Amino acid sequence: MRAFRQMEAIAGVGATIMGLLTLAVALFVPLLSFRVITTTPDGQATAHTEMQTLAQQVSGGTQTSLLVTFAALAVSMGLLALTHTRRRTRGDLILLWIVCLLLLAEAYFSIVLIMGVFVPTALLALICAISGTLAQASAGAAES
What we know:
This protein is mainly α and 144 residues long. The chain has one domain. Helix content is 74%, strand content 11%. Strands 1-2 form a two-stranded antiparallel ribbon. α1 packs antiparallel against α3, α3 runs antiparallel to α4 and α3 (62-87) runs parallel beside α6 (119-143).
């Protein structure tokens, strides 16, 4: 039972850290390059390579809402994991699963937009939720 609680806390905090690192990479690290060719009025072509971050690659307000939602869910996962580890209430476990499922859904639906960078965080969230459920079940079995 204690091992499940520790795994829940570690996976929850890991999901938060991984989520914030993913957010930082998406916002600040230029990973995508493309070649731009421009033609001057006298007919000469010049080419240069430009780099963009993942956030710049996705256009419109989609990336902002996607990244903000992802960051909020990742932070919530860690906080809920630590809260559930301490208080061990059924309500915290339900919230943990809701946040986990939302992270999994966001990872699934954003895979086309930003190449699945949310998947590791979502998988850590799933491990956290499963560990919390197993800890809760083993605590209930020990009490009866």
